[in-house]
């Protein structure tokens, strides 16, 4: 049986107790000249207190400090590079129109190509989208490497994808991203950390050309197997805006498991083009 693995919804305090810490990246020296700050998440002993000096001379920072910094930078209208469960992404506050424009300029992206939003929990989807599928369907697929396209609600910034009434929603299977979205208390606009039409990135080094335009980079280390093309496919994008049907916008990395859930558990039909 195919299935989507995902992390459970975890409270922030539990994440701190789980033993994940953060430290400045070795790439910080390079970014001093670029005015870009790089903070690295690494597994290790829980460290919820102030930054401490490690044996290697690096400042070891807790998740709490990293999250606080990221939230502050985002609320100032900046773009932040973040790790997800699929590829590295660029994030800003979805309700900040200037920050959204900044992402488009940074990527050289066609203004008619939409950005997805990232929220911290399934419950948040209902505020920004008009949900017409069962709640359990959302929970079967999210958190996970899937983007669900739904009709947007009036709560969402009208400058985000103004050319469509639909919006893609992500809850990455990445605990840091889930808590970051919760701490921001509003959705993040999220897209891949690469220049438009170039390959998705699995390490910070792979998008170093974007660093001069970024205020902060959260370095979560390599995502998956950097030598595997399959690891660069990004999330599976599914349109669920038509009742009783689904359509595949991008196959991505989780298509087979996603289709099995949609068809076998919820009896959704693959939407066919009108002739």
From TrEMBL:
Query: What biological function has been recorded for the protein in this entry?
Result: Cytoplasmic and mitochondrial threonylcarbamoyl-AMP synthase required for the formation of a threonylcarbamoyl group on adenosine at position 37 (t(6)A37) in tRNAs that read codons beginning with adenine. Catalyzes the conversion of L-threonine, HCO(3)(-)/CO(2) and ATP to give threonylcarbamoyl-AMP (TC-AMP) as the acyladenylate intermediate, with the release of diphosphate. Participates in t(6)A37 formation in cytoplasmic and mitochondrial tRNAs. May regulate the activity of some transporters.
**Main location as per UniProt:** membrane
In its keyword annotation, does this UniProt entry include Cell division? Answer: no
Q: Which InterPro entries match?
A: DHBP_synth_RibB-like_a/b_dom, Sua5-like_dom, TC-AMP_synthase_SUA5
| Enzyme Commission no | 2.7.7.87
Q: Which PROSITE patterns match?
A: YRDC
One Pfam match, given by its short name, reads Sua5_yciO_yrdC
What name has this protein been given in UniProt? Threonylcarbamoyl-AMP synthase
Gene (UniProt):
YRDC
């Amino acid at each position: 049986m195919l299935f989507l693995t995902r992390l459970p919804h975890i409270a922030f305090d539990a994440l701190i107790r789980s033993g994940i810490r953060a430290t400045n990246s070795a790439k910080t020296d390079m970014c001093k000249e670029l005015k870009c700050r790089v903070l690295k998440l690494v597994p290790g002993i829980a460290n919820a207190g102030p930054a401490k000096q490690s044996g290697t001379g690096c400042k070891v920072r807790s998740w709490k400090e990293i999250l606080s910094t990221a939230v502050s930078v985002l609320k100032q209208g900046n773009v932040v590079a973040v790790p997800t469960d699929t590829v590295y992404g660029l994030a800003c506050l979805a309700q900040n129109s200037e920050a959204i424009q900044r992402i488009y300029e940074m990527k050289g992206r066609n203004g008619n190509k939409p950005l997805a939003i990232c929220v911290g929990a399934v419950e948040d989807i209902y505020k920004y989208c008009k949900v017409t599928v069962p709640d359990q369907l959302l929970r079967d697929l999210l958190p996970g490497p899937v983007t669900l396209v739904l009709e947007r609600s009036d709560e969402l910034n009208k400058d985000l994808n103004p050319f469509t009434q639909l919006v893609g929603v992500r809850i990455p299977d990445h605990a840091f991203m889930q808590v970051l979205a919760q701490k921001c208390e509003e959705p993040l606009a999220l897209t891949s950390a690469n220049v438009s039409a170039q390959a998705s990135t699995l390490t910070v080094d792979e998008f170093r050309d974007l660093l001069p335009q970024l205020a902060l980079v959260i370095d979560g280390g390599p995502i998956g197997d950097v030598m595997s093309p399959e690891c660069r496919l990004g999330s599976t994008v599914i349109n669920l805006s038509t009742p009783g049907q689904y359509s595949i916008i991008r196959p991505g990395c989780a298509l087979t498991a996603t289709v099995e859930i949609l068809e076998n558990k919820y009896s959704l039909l693959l939407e066919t083009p009108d002739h």
